[in-house]
Amino acid sequence: ASGGSGNLWPWGNKISPERANLWGDKDGYMTAAPVGSYPQGASPHGLLDMVGNVWEWVSTPFVSSNKGPKTKTLRIVKGGGWTSNQQVAGISFRNIVDPAMKNPTVGFRCAKSI
After folding, report:
1. 83 with 103: CB under 8 angstroms?
2. In the prediction, which pLDDT does 70 show?
3. Which residues 6+ apart lie within 8 Å of 32 measured at CB?
4. What is the 3-state secondary structure (H, E, C) of the chain?
5. Is it the case that residue 71 has pLDDT exceeding 80?
6. Computed from CA positions of residues 86, 87, 91, 95, in that sequence, does the dihedral angle turn out positive or negative?
7. pTM of the predicted model as reported, rounded to 2 decimal places
8. Is the pLDDT of residue 20 over 90?
């Protein structure tokens, strides 16, 4: 999401409403926005919507350091959604969820290695 820049956000280190669809109406949307609505929020490689709009599933499974009995496999979603605040939408934040959960703020992105 940061293109290897080390930034807090795909576009730099300062959050602003014209770069991502996060909680509130200052960004112009109260729910999900059309894909690509925030071109100013592009990563160094031109990726859009890496933060905000919907949480995105990642392929990395959550591995607990808890040595207790394993009850279910959990997964990771990243990037925050339209109901997220900036503390949970940053590039480094990992949200741990049950993959059976149904939530309109969670989506996915199709990706292919080049």
Report:
1. no
2. 67
3. 21, 53, 54, 81, 82, 104
4. CCCCCCCCECCECCCCHHHCECCCCCCCCCCCCCCCCCHHHCCCCCCCCCCECCEEEEEEECCCCCCCCCCCCCEEEECCCCCCCHHHHCCCCCEEECCCCCCCCEECCCCCCC
5. no
6. negative
7. 0.83
8. yes
Q: Contacts from 55-59 at CB under 8 Å and sequence distance 24+?
A: 55/79, 55/80, 55/81, 55/84, 55/95, 55/97, 55/103, 55/105, 55/106, 55/107, 56/106, 56/107, 56/108, 56/109, 57/106, 57/107, 57/108
What tokens does 54 get? 């919907």
Number of residues assigned to the chain: 114
Output the six-digit token pair for 11: 């576009």
Q: How far apart are CA 77 and CA 9, in angstroms?
A: 16
For residue 78, give both structure tokens: 């990243």
